[in-house]
TrEMBL record, chain A:
An example Gene Ontology CC term for this record: plasma membrane
Alphabetical list of PANTHER family matching this protein: ABC TRANSPORTER PERMEASE PROTEIN, HIGH-AFFINITY BRANCHED-CHAIN AMINO ACID TRANSPORT SYSTEM PERMEASE
Pfam hit, one: BPD_transp_2
GO molecular function, one term: branched-chain amino acid transmembrane transporter activity
Entry keyword set: Cell membrane, Membrane, Transmembrane, Transmembrane helix
Protein name: Amino acid/amide ABC transporter membrane protein 2, HAAT family
Organism: Pseudonocardia oroxyli
Membrane topology: Multi-pass membrane protein
TrEMBL record, chain B:
InterPro entries: AAA+_ATPase, ABC_AA/LPS_Transport, ABC_transporter-like_ATP-bd, BCA_ABC_TP_C, P-loop_NTPase
GO molecular function: ATP binding; ATP hydrolysis activity
Keywords: ATP-binding, Nucleotide-binding, Transport
Pfam families: ABC_tran, BCA_ABC_TP_C
GO CC annotations on file: plasma membrane
Source species: Pseudonocardia oroxyli
Domain ABC transporter positions: 14-260
Name the UniProt record assigns to this protein: Amino acid/amide ABC transporter ATP-binding protein 1, HAAT family
Amino acid sequence: MSERVVTERSSVLVRLRTSWPSVAGVAVLLLVLLVFPVFAGVAYLKAGQYVLIGVVGAVGLTLLVGQAGQLSLAHPFFLLVGAVSYAVLAGDSGDSGDLVGLGLPPLLAVIGAVAICALVGLAFSPVSGRLRGIYLGVASLSLVFLGLYLGQSLDMLSGGTSTGRPPPTFDLFGFRFANSDPAPTILGVAIQKQQRLWYLFLVLAIVAYLLARGAVRSRVGRAWRAVRDNEAAATAMGVNVARAKAQAFTVSSAFAGLAGVMTALWLDLVKPDENEFIGTYSITVAISYLAMVLIGGLGSIPGAVAGAVLVNGLPQVLTLGATEFGWSIGTLSPVLISAFVYGAAIVLVVLFEPGGLAAIGRRLTTRQGDR
Amino acid sequence: MSAPGTVRSDVAPLAVESVTLRFGGVTALSDVSFTVEPGAVHALIGPNGAGKSSCFNVISGLYRPTSGRVRLGEQDLTGTPPHRLAGLGVGRSFQNIALSPHSTVRDNVLLGRHPLTRGGFLAGGLRIGRRTEARHRARVEEICAFLGVADRLDSLVAALPYGVAKRVDIARALAVEPTVLLLDEPAAGLNATETAEMGVTIRDLADALGISVLLVEHDMGLVMGIADRVSVLDFGRLIADGPPEQVQADPEVVRAYLGVSE
């Protein structure tokens, strides 16, 4: 017994010795993320928050597309459902009293919004379970159009395209994620609304990351990959294929729903799009999320994070560069430039490294791990 | 080669009872009956198109027979959803290796523990049941050692030679702790040495673990060398069923394989 304890302890030590560079790297990264609000202004914080929204959404999408092998363009639809659900569950009836609002505590509303998205995803699973590849991609795209239509027509829920509705301020056991006076300080910097939201989003992104990472390495992840690679073999090994597919779609929708709630808090507004191509819940967003998981490497959770940093971060950085330092490239807008950059990144990945940034990272660290 | 665990005593006979399978007007199987006795290596052979694969697919639940049934002991397998069979003790390997190429050997074989474990997304995400998981990982290593692929546990399947991948496929089928193992052409694509080694392994599975093995195979040398019993199909009918030496001498079998001029 004691011998076993000793060997277990020494194996932990050995593992620590071999993996200390990555442990140290994670520690440094966490430290930087924690003190980010101290040295970064509000504009930078907003950009960082936007990246963290992308992380949550992309992690959810890479589970579905990369691990379970189901192509989905429906992510913006679930963002919309998440955002509107949060506003409805936690909100009030508005100034003119024509909005539906249940006035629930915001924490409960977030959980409720995520649960609603999971259920809506589950409801779509009879379709997603029967279609594959590009057919599923097109079928899932129909949800984006459905979201556009419903968002515009059900304005007692969504607030309508002209004004939208404000999302209720998030609060956690009485601690409000809004400006206050006096505000608590860290290293002399007041922790106001944007700093608070940064920490909230950071926690949510880390939770999403750890959940996905654990799931991918466990029984459910193995079942998803088996279904992706060979349904007959998965069945022979006892995997209920229809159930595994539905499970993946449900989980992915829940992640998107959480990203939707974060989007509402980030914009401080819930407002349905006016058309299907440009907007917060549009086809463009569907493609951005696909770009994140492709560039990161299909199915890789760290890859999805890297993809989100590139795809959501680059336009923000370029915009900041333009406003703060006067960067400009002719008449090209930051959004357009970053679209070119990640478009090129996709082409390069597909041509030269189908494993994406994750595979490049693996090669650099020369460690064979699970995808 | 060490045996993973003890000889099983709970192995039930697998009985194929008057199975008929029709696709439209084509009769793929016609009133086929045979029994795989506990602990036996049972071979199912026949010329191309004889119905071997159809028979295999009926047993593993992919096809539903037009009439007749398949029983494992008292359990009727005929109406059982195919994903339940693994949990009932039916393991199967595939003719064209059906492993996940970009996953490791360990990951692939661990999939076989699916029916023996529980837990969905949240259990996995919150890392619940790590201790049980460790037990299953240890068992997977044992099984891989038995199949002689323990040194490849962390290799990606895509990087394996064909013969090794074939063994990994069987290791995965064994990971469900089957009482009956269905092997679909385990020697297909193997060279003579690998085929001989595969024969020894299959014989070991039955002898050391006490489980039954039903194999579909084209390699007559392999079949006659290791099978306790051979069933021969021709045009969907069972034309012979008995010990290898008896079947080899059966004039019907000789005619089916070589053709005889009247």
